[in-house]
Structures are given as structure tokens and as C-alpha cells.
Amino acid sequence: MTNLLSMKDLSKEEILYLLERAEAFRQGDQLPIGGTVVNLFFEPSTRTKMSFEMAERKLGLTVLPFETGFSSVLKGETLYDTVKTLEAIGVDAVVIRHEQEAYYKELEALNIAIINGGDGSGQHPTQSLLDLYTIQEEFGTFNGLHVTIAGDIAHSRVARSNAEALQKLGAEVTFICPDEWKGEFPSSQHLDEVISTTDVLMLLRVQHERHHTDSWFSKESYHEQYGLTIQRERLMKNRAIIMHPAPVNRGVEIADELVEAPRSRIFKQMENGVYMRMAALEYALKGSRVWQF
Ligand code: CP
């Protein structure tokens, strides 16, 4: 069994292997993998939770339902004791989303595979992998692509996961955000300076739930300064694509009309997420054959 915790842990070869496996699953690969899985979501989710459940059913895995709100978590049971309990009853892998960054460090000694479904503002490896799969499907390569990541970067586990992986694969990454949200990234505030040279515009959600002070901007002013407006979209390269991990604040990061525009891959990302999560589950339960090469 193998953990999938952070994009930092994956080599370029392992990333490419996982993308290859996602494509094989799309093509109907039916390699049987047995196992019992539990999805533990301590933070809200629609896409990640539902696409993992879809992936688990497509793989024929046994999925035990777990609702944190009806579990002994409400009696104060710790994450460690919860996962230790699942290990004791014979669960093979858990998908965990948790608000605590690097929550998985306290679970390292357990004999159960852990797939990180998002840890606070830390990492979201399966989102990053499905984003990479979507980019590869579109362009066939990462080398020389200009990817612009724009939005609430400091609070974004998606930005953190994608930045390093994209650079590892040969893409050039630019960050655009208000100074208040740049975190550890070298960023600019001017989307207009890069919009016409960008191949992939990856927009990020404004994460109000992680802000500890009142918003210093209105929806309209954020959209005008940092969002993909209809005017900016017209400046994009012919083949450039729009991505967003979603959920989308329509009219804030992106104009409502552009969410389903021809160059938007937002719903394609969700479709790809199912195949990518099949690959992630296979990796966690069976390991990666990349090491045999
Ligand atoms: N992109 C993403 O992680 O969406 P959910 O929060 O709905 O899972």
C-alpha cells in the first residue's frame, strides 16, 4: 500500500505514470483491484467526494459509508483513533479531507493507505493530477507551456500542489493575485500583462472561509482587477484554455458567461477527476509499477 499525500512526494516519472493510468481507465482498462475504502471528509466537498465514490464503484471496491456528523468524532474521538479504528476493522485505504495542514503526519505509523483529499491550505494532490491530465489531454505536453495561476493563492492547496508539479514537468508558471494573498509565491497583480501569452489560465476560488478579516474588496472590484472578464477573455490565445478547480464564484473569479465557454475546461476537469481518482486508488492499493522500469 502506498500513501498519496503531496505532489512534492511524486517524481516526474510517477506523475506521468499516474496520468497514463488515468487515460487507460478512460479507455476502459478493467484491471480488478480488491479492497475496502472509506471516504473521511471533515470539510465540505462535492467534486472530490463524489468523484472518489464514482471511481471506487467503477473499480469494484467496497466502500463503507462514513459521515463525520454521525460518527464518534462528535464525541471527541481524534483523527488518529478514527483511522486506527478503520485499520482495525480491515479497511485498506482512506481518502481524507481535513482542515488541518499535514494532518497525515500523525497517521504515518498506521498500516492503511492514505489518499489526501485536501489538507487545509496545504496540498490537494488528486486535484493537481486531474488538472495535469486535463492539460496533457489538451496540449500533449507540458514543455514550454505558459500556465497562469490567478486568485487566492495564499489559501490555495490547488496552487501549492500545481505550482511545483507544473514546473517539474517543464511548464512556465506565473502567479497573479492581490499582494495580500501572494503567500510564498513570486506574484504580480497584473493579469492584463500575461493574458495574451498564457496557454492555460487556472483561476482559483476566493476562499472566504479561510479569511480571518472582512473582505477588503467588493465582488465587482475583484472581478475587474483580477478576474477573467469578457474583455480579457477576448485577448486570450486561440488555443488557450480556462481552468478552475471549482466551486466557482460566478462573476468574481470568472464572468458567469465564461464558465461554460468553448475554451473552458472546468467541467472537463470534473469528468477527468473520476479517471484520475481511479488511478490514485490503484496507486494507493497496489503501488506504482513505475519503479519497475
Ligand atoms: N475542487 C474541489 O476540491 O472541489 P470540492 O471542494 O467540491 O471537492
UniProtKB/TrEMBL annotation:
Source species, domain of life: Bacteria
Catalytic activity: carbamoyl phosphate + L-aspartate = N-carbamoyl-L-aspartate + phosphate + H(+)
InterPro entries linked to this entry: Asp/Orn_carbamoyltranf_P-bd, Asp/Orn_carbamoylTrfase, Asp/Orn_carbamoylTrfase_sf, Asp_carbamoyltransf, Asp_carbamoyltransf_Asp/Orn-bd
Entry-linked PROSITE patterns: CARBAMOYLTRANSFERASE
GO biological process: 'de novo' pyrimidine nucleobase biosynthetic process; 'de novo' UMP biosynthetic process; amino acid metabolic process
Annotated carbamoyl phosphate binding sites: R47, T48, R97, H124, Q127, A246, P247
Molecular function as annotated in GO: amino acid binding; aspartate carbamoyltransferase activity
Domain Aspartate/ornithine carbamoyltransferase Asp/Orn-binding: 144-283
Uppermost EC category: transferase
Domain Aspartate/ornithine carbamoyltransferase carbamoyl-P binding: 3-137
Family classification: Belongs to the aspartate/ornithine carbamoyltransferase superfamily. ATCase family.
Official protein name in the record: Aspartate carbamoyltransferase
Protein encoded by which gene: pyrB
